[in-house]
Amino acid sequence: MTPITEVEGRRLALSNLDKVLYPATGFTKGELLHYYATVAAPLLAHLYDRPVSFLRYPDGPEGQRFFTKNVPPGTPSWVRTADVPHSRSAPSRQVLVQDLASLMWAANLVTEFHTPQWQADAPGQADRLVLDLDPGEPADVVECCAVALWLQERLSADGLHSYVKTSGSKGLHMLVPLEPTPSDRVSAYAKTLAVEAEAEHPELVVHRMTRSLRPGKVFVDFSQNAAAKTTATPYTLRARPEPTVSAPVTWEEVEACTDARELTFLADDIAPRLERHGDLLGPLINLNRAGRVP
């Protein structure tokens, strides 16, 4: 029998709570739901008014995974949605996760949360820039840290303040709050940064996606600034062998990192980090220090 619970006056059926999603650690669906309830405040702040794309993995990371942007079948009528324009087709509707009830409904689908760099009321007007630092083996997050520190100085030279989180996979995401700016302009600037990083450190950085160029280097992926692209939302769990989280980190942690394990965070690590640091990406919410793309 599927348990029924009430969240903020909404009745939710939360299914398969004992199902093990991450066999390596025994982490269950019930624990996944508990995690999302625990981090709801900062996660909802980063999801708010951003159309959500879902990477679903209902049978765990080792099972089938599928990516969807459209409103899932059976979505309750009280879950808010928004029209999202597409350049080559008619607008689609996507979910907006605006409150705890919507978050728990979506979490029950077992999903990673991915969002664009713009909000639903201003599609294609980016209020943040993202650089995805993706290491090619044998490089790992330690090399990503070195690249991130160079990019932090480069952005600072243009008057831009950058923040950083783990991807929850192998690398890092750098985020920069911006005054709303057309996505194509942000993309062009982000590409310039990636090209400059490669020119400065050709032994360490590559800006092209070509797989054969990437072993031992850090791919600086600027493409997620395109209006149609999305990035893993801060605090989302990832479909990895363990319940890793895309977790905000301090620049001091980045500078001190000498081992990938130092910047690998599991679900149980996040509540203590929030208690200690608060939301390190808070400036992205209220656009503190929002800058202008040169």
TrEMBL record:
This is Non-homologous end-joining DNA ligase. It comes from Streptomyces aureus. InterPro entries: LigD_pol_dom, MtLigD_Pol-like, NHEJ_LigD. It comes from the Bacteria. GO terms for molecular function: DNA ligase (ATP) activity. Residues 28-280 form the DNA ligase D polymerase domain. It is an enzyme of class 6 (ligase). Pfam families: LigD_Prim-Pol. Signal peptide: none annotated. PANTHER family: BIFUNCTIONAL NON-HOMOLOGOUS END JOINING PROTEIN LIGD. Its EC number is 6.5.1.1. Keywords: Ligase.
